[in-house]
Amino acid sequence: MLATIRLRDQRGFSLIELIIVVAVIAILAAIMIPNFLSQRQRAADARAMDAIANVRKGLGMFAADTGNYPTGTNWAAVRTAVAPYIALPATEADAGLSAFSYTATGTPPTSYTICATPAGGTGQRVRGTPDNQALVATCP
């Protein structure tokens, strides 16, 4: 009789209760983890869009002063050209980009196309011109 009373006095969770709690936690994690990962990708895309917007502002100021756009093909050339107007990160990686290209068209250059790939983004590229900027599947 004493042994039976001792068993009833013991407190704790049963194995079934623990399994249910673990299952609920696993379901919540399965729902939340993809949301966090996609949010991270969207943040990388937004950071790249912001970097290209800053480059476009600097190029616009350069063109307002000189009447044309600078020549060059890479981040360093563009950064040097717009340095008097706007501060850009030292490298495209510092700006959140894994790839960057700049193509000026015309003699003297009267237009440009920027193509950039966000680091850690959705895989879409950012394309910028004097008229607009957008996430695109491909760049020229």
Structural class: alpha+beta
Portion in helices = 40-55%
The whole-number mean of residue pLDDT values reads 86
What is the end-to-end distance?
Answer: 85 Å
The dominant shape is rod-shaped
> N-to-C SSE series?
HHHEEEE
**Biggest sheet architecture:** 4 strands, antiparallel
The share of residues in extended strands comes to: 15-25%
How many strand segments?
Answer: 4
- Give the tally of structural domains: 1
Radius of gyration: 27 Å
Question: Main sheet: which strands, in order across?
Answer: 1-2-3-4
Question: Uncertain regions: pLDDT < 50 for 5+ in a row?
Answer: none
Structure description:
This protein is α+β, with helices and mostly antiparallel strands. It has one domain. Helices cover 49% and strands 18% of the residues. It has 3 helices and 4 strands. The chain has a 4-stranded antiparallel beta sheet, covered by helices on one side. Strand 2 and strand 3 form a beta hairpin. Helix 2 crosses helix 3. It is rod-shaped and about 85 Å long. It starts with a helix and ends with a strand. The mean pLDDT is 86.
